Input
Amino acid sequence: MMDASPIKREVVRRAASAPRDPERTRAAILRAATEEITAKGLNGARVDTIAKRAGVNKRMLYHYFGDKQGLYLSVLEETYAAIRAAEIGLNLTELDPVAGMRKLVLFTWQYFIDHPEFLSLLTTENLNRAAYLKRSKRIRHLHAPLVDVIGGLLDRGVKQKMFRKGVDPVDLYISIAALGFFYMSNRHTLATIFGKDLTSPPRLAQRGEHIVEMVLTFLGTKKP
Output
């Protein structure tokens, strides 16, 4: 009777060499690329390292993304897509304007805290003057729903006499993001300058409430 061990080894070998699930493979490459680019920047990131982290060969990486620049652009798009999808999941249209705005502000702040790679990639692309993001055919489409949701909150707030008139949704979102982004991206230098621990849980929670109060006060609403 034939020893089962060689048969088992052959089954394992064939399974290992079988074609991967395309979506899973693509996702693994994007995760590895995000880690590498966040750690080393676009110029310092190495395709060999990304492929090794993702468990694929370089040929597979080039098959999905074309080249390093194409991979980087996909990383940017997926990074933006992730936060935009999470924002849609907040279901802000079901809340009253003040509660909806508060939820959006605190979500944005917490997202910056939980996703330092997002801040790092934005900084990298701004250093590139958005040269790669300008090539994206998805980026404006990704942001349209967010602008609509904020615009809806503002319109309902005005009708219910909770918000003042004339606030542009894009300007408002830029201000919300800026109040959190600057703090997180400069937390090390600010902590040194002012001699404060800016990353303790109480301090981060306090900052979140500070941003909420500033935004609601600007909109003509007192903090609930």
About this structure: Confidence is low (pLDDT under 50) at residues 6-19.
